[in-house]
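User: I'm preparing a small set of examples for a lab meeting where we compare how different chains pack in three dimensions. I only have the primary sequence for this one, and I'd like the structure in token form so I can line it up with the others. Please keep the answer compact; I'll paste it straight into my notes.
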Amino acid sequence: MGFYFPRLGQSNKLIGRIGLIAMAGLMGTSLVACGGKDKKTASDPSGSASSSAPSEDASMCAKIHIGTQDQVINTAVGGAVVRELKIFEDNLPKDGKYKDLDYTVEWSSYTSGPPITNKMMAGQIQIGLMGDFPAVINLIKGREGSGDTKTVYIGTLAYSPNGAGNAVVVPIESKVTNLSELKGGTVSVPFGSAAHGMVLKALKDEGFDTEKDLTLISQAPEVGGSSLQKNQIDAHADFVPFGELFPYRGFAKKIFDGAQTGVPTLHGITVREDFAKSCPEVVTAFMQSVLEANKKFTDSPEAISAQIEEWSGIDKEVVYMFLGPSGLQYLSPEIEEVQLQALENSIATLMSLGKIENKEVKPSDVRGWIDNSYLEKAATNLNTSIPDQITKGKEYLITGKDALDGSDITNPKNSGQIWIEGEDKVQNYSSPVTMVKALKKFKSEGKEPSALFVHDMNKGWKLFAGTAYFVDNKGEITAFLLKSDADAYAKESGGKVIDFEALQVMG
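Assistant: Understood. Below is the structure token output for the 507-residue chain.
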């Protein structure tokens, strides 16, 4: 039932857990936070059962079902970390109207947002973690008809102000190098996902008529990955983390990054409004758990990345690439202008494509579907504030000393990193040059890297060194995500574009 992706550098080690988790999610299998009297269904945070009946007002707060996406790294900290470390159970209210309440906390993991929305509309899930496009569909659907299933957006998990994370990849042996070469081909994407909106906009900007110029089909990540390996499709568009995971596993290469759209993207949290109004302290406890999980990750990114690999099947190096210091995504909970723009843009794009039937909906409506009161209260409970959290997210960059020569790392955008196979910590370097010198030293000692990172000079995006483009300007090395950017900088600076193999020679 699962699908198998060989991990880069471990071609004979096949990992099928992703597909198994994904298929279990699609079939509606719940991942349950266990404890209390029934270890299959219930969690009793008070530590003992009580014969006293909880107040009637709290009765609907007893069963809490959360829909998440374990494989989608943007939701992993607020999802799998909170679930597996039982952070939410520790924070659930236990006094007042919640005294003696016997909580049942259930989790379900899916490969995309739409199934979560369907279950939220049916009253089977109260809290949902999903990307921007599914989130706005969630918010709109909850307001249809009687509005009894209304949801509100209560916090962000991780985001990119320019769209980094979404991507289009092609089979590793494909000759295709850009979107224009996909004309007449077949491209798959999970319909209704953040990546769906990204690829529709990207193809439209490229001048494509998606009804005539190519065949666009819906495939979940595990199906798209399998199709790439079998050369059954020409390209696959997907959300975090698959645009990096598939190339890391060695069977695909990226030809388009969502950052090229310049449109912000996010994953966030929606909650059924009726549940939030009846159980505000429970919702606050969940947001507090997300903030605590964020801190656990930023304090120990390698260790938590390794745990997320165990829980999700996504390689720890890819988790670290997205959420570690100077990562592709900001791990930050706020609902500020950039997040509102991401949600507005999602509605506008869906409307332009005829994907929203309600003609009365306007993009700006989403600003009235926000409630940050639970996040603010959670921050207060932890003696912090939303501005502090924003600052921490943006300042979560590579710092310290070069692990080879001891020099100060003053420019995170020019830094390099090595994660040696089997080691617990990533080594930081002040430049790609000292990084490859250290790499040569490690290899002489019989140590092999599981990942090598550099950063785009313009934007600071974390890149796998082996697929980046470099410019050598008299020994000063800078890295780029796009060859066009490297070419432009080389022309401007008088340098020359080189690949990673040539860079290693310099070491």
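A couple of notes for your slides: The chain has a mean pLDDT of 87. The two ends are 45 Å apart (CA to CA).

User: Perfect, thanks.
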